[in-house]
Design goal:
The protein is α+β, with helices and mostly antiparallel strands. About 30% of the residues lie in helices and about 20% in strands. It has a 4-stranded mixed β-sheet with strand order 1-4-3-2, with no helix packed on it.
């Protein structure tokens, strides 16, 4: 990964934020993010687009905004 690509990932990652939204959208993939710290602590996140939909994928995860943008950046890098 180039320095510019890494910088774009960092910028998108910094925009991921906790959300209190209560929505139940349609026609959008469920996006999740699993983060493991150097000490081994695991944090589980899910995009807030379906935050009012009671799905199994939400169990134990924290709702956040910004995963769509992060996913787009990672997809663009992987296509190169």
């Amino acid at each position: 990964m180039s320095g510019a690509e890494l910088a774009s990932v960092d910028i998108a990652f910094e925009k991921v934020a906790l959300s209190t939204a209560k929505t139940c959208g349609a026609d959008f993939p469920v996006l999740t993010l699993d983060v493991t710290t150097p000490s081994g602590t695991v944090h589980l996140y899910v995009d807030d687009f379906y935050s009012s939909c009671p799905w199994d994928v939400h169990v134990g995860r924290t709702f956040v905004t910004g995963l769509g943008k992060l996913g787009n950046v990672l997809a663009q890098i992987s296509e190169q």
